[in-house]
Write a structure and sequence with these properties.
Layout: E1 9-12, E2 17-21, E3 27-30, H1 45-67, E4 76-86, E5 89-99, H2 105-118, H3 120-125, E6 130-135
């Protein structure tokens, strides 16, 4: 495996803390959402994970669609990452709602499934968190 790029972020303070990237392009506070008993008012790890997964997934979608001659430049994905309690454990789950204008629902679902198989974030989570990918 050839490493192409490494992102480096220092986190401190846990869910009510601060993060900063090594290159300084990211620096902000994180807060526990009000829905989880926190103060809210800042981003949280689940939003950040969804924000990272979305563009990566769309890159995979573009790659698989290109092989089939389909233009997905106007495609969108709504990534929802949930923090759940399962008995005494906390687990994540995810939903990816994929929209590709100008093609059928069935073709969108087919491309969405192929992108999910190709996306590095999808691969990293496969078998680890419950994930649903749906054409919308």
């Amino acid at each position: 495996m050839e490493k192409l790029y490494t992102a480096s972020v220092i986190a401190s303070g846990g869910r009510d803390g601060h993060i900063k990237s090594s290159d300084g392009t990211i620096e902000f506070d994180v807060r526990t959402p009000k829905e989880m008993g926190g103060q809210g008012g800042a981003t949280n790890p689940e939003q950040l994970f969804a924000a990272a997964w979305g563009p990566c997934y769309l890159g995979a979608l573009a790659a698989v669609a290109k092989n089939q001659g389909v233009d997905v430049s106007e495609a969108t994905v709504n990534v929802q990452v949930a923090f759940n309690q399962d008995g005494n454990a906390f687990v994540l789950s995810a939903e990816l709602d994929v929209h590709i204008p100008g093609i059928s629902h069935e073709e969108t679902q087919s491309l969405a499934d192929k992108a999910h198989k190709a996306c590095p974030y999808s691969k990293a989570t496969r078998g680890n968190i419950e994930t649903r990918v749906t054409a919308v």
